[in-house]
Amino acid sequence: MPRSIYLLSVPSDAGALNGTDLGPESLLNALPPALFGAGYGYHKVVRRDLGEQTGFPGTAALHRRSRGKVHRKREVVQVANMTAQAVRESLNWDAFVAVLGGDHSIAMGSCRGALEFARSRGKTLGLLWIDAHYDAHTHLSTLSHNANGMPLATLLGYGPPCFRPGRQAFLPEHVLHLGAGEKDCEPPERALLEQLGVRMIPAKDFRQLNVAVPWRALVQLLARVDLVWVSFDLDAVNRVHAPGVHLRSENGLTKMTLLWIAGHVAQSRKLCGVDIMEHKPSAEEYDGDGRGKTAMLASEFLLTLLGKDPQSVQ
């Protein structure tokens, strides 16, 4: 059990302007009660709202005229750099880190910060990317010019140099992508990941109930690294359980599959942090008790990663 949990709120959608900048506030309302209910009230849960404390660009700044091949490049870099610094500091304080977004371009910073921390300690870091999209465009292949389609390529060493200060990158054999859908996954992205040798298990493989292949891929990743960071885009999960996202998934991962993945990561005892990204409160749906379905899913996912049974938490 981690000594402390830092919930790092990153209220930015600079990478897409898709309404996910309000996601962290919604998640901060849902996650702490679940953590306290799981017994983490005794351990200090630290909320660090980076949007309030370190001056993330506001809405007006994000609507400046775009230049170059990536929209709002300067704002994306600013957010990523601040996030990387906050993650490094939190991990140096021996904390478990949950980064709450915001659009997925924020992972350029969170995952970089975790990688820099791991290498400073002489450890290898694995990256488990759970997403309905590959997020592996570069500035040369993107059609939307939005940075939220580029973080995985960036973390592998491709894309605009300003997105990759220090030029550190994940080794392809230390990256596993789970949950890609059948729509909005474009050929240039897959081609780059295939060229690099990144292992990919699409959502349809899980639906075919052939868990042996994903299980082996996950076990192999966890075996070859010292630490692991999970970057989770909520749109990887079927819309029944995750309606509060910008692009709802019709045939995504089931909640059972997601928690199965989280449970295996928890058993490894190698997890140092997680991104929970792309929550869009304006698209949220609520159960009979008024609880947001997507926020509840995020809570169950986080608890399972921490080795807790969500059903046992009142």
Give helix and strand order, one letter per element, not per position.
EHEHHHEHEHEHEHHEHEH
Query: N- to C-terminal separation?
Result: 19 Å
What oligomeric state do these chains adopt? single chain
Number of strands: 8
InterPro entries: Ureohydrolase (IPR006035), Ureohydrolase_dom_sf (IPR023696)
GO cellular component, one term: cytoplasm
GO molecular function: arginase activity; manganese ion binding
Protein name: Arginase
Structure description:
- This is Arginase.
- The structure is a single chain.
- The protein has 314 residues and is α/β, with parallel strands linked by helices.
- It has one domain: Arginase, Chain A.
- The chain contains eleven helices and eight strands.
- Strands 2-1-3-8-7-4-5-6 form an eight-stranded parallel β-sheet, with helices on both faces.
- Strand 5, helix 7 and strand 6 form a beta-alpha-beta unit.
Write a compact overview of the structure shown:
The protein has 314 residues and is an alpha/beta fold. Strands 2-1-3-8-7-4-5-6 form an eight-stranded parallel sheet, with helices on both faces.
